[in-house]
Amino acid sequence: MTATVELEIKNRKGLHARAAAAFVKVAETFDAVIEVERLGQKVSGCSIMGLMMLAAAKGTTVKVSAEGAQAEQAVQAIAKLVNDKFGED
């Protein structure tokens, strides 16, 4: 199964270290391979450094794709995390 969603980064500091760590923590709980893409650059959703290298500031749109048995659940959980501003501001 495959699932994809485009998300706008809404928290004030963007996809910085703490937000990236929260993203990875959620991503690792699912039986799915997760990738995040911005401006043609794809990184693993389970790589804090990779996510930070996307330089996704507030207002940036990223595409999250998941493939695997829990792809839909993974995308939904990540969308909730991003839309909740990673529990920040």
UniProtKB/TrEMBL annotation:
InterPro entries: HPr, HPr-like, HPr-like_sf, PTS_HPr_His_P_site. Residues 2-89 form the HPr domain. It holds the Pfam family PTS-HPr. PROSITE patterns: PTS_HPR_DOM, PTS_HPR_HIS. Gene3D superfamilies: HPr-like. Keywords: Cytoplasm, Kinase, Phosphotransferase system, Transferase. GO terms for molecular function: kinase activity. GO terms for cellular component: cytoplasm. The keyword Disulfide bond does not apply. Belongs to the HPr family. PANTHER family: PHOSPHOCARRIER PROTEIN HPR (PTHR33705), PHOSPHOCARRIER PROTEIN NPR (PTHR33705:SF2). This is HPr kinase.
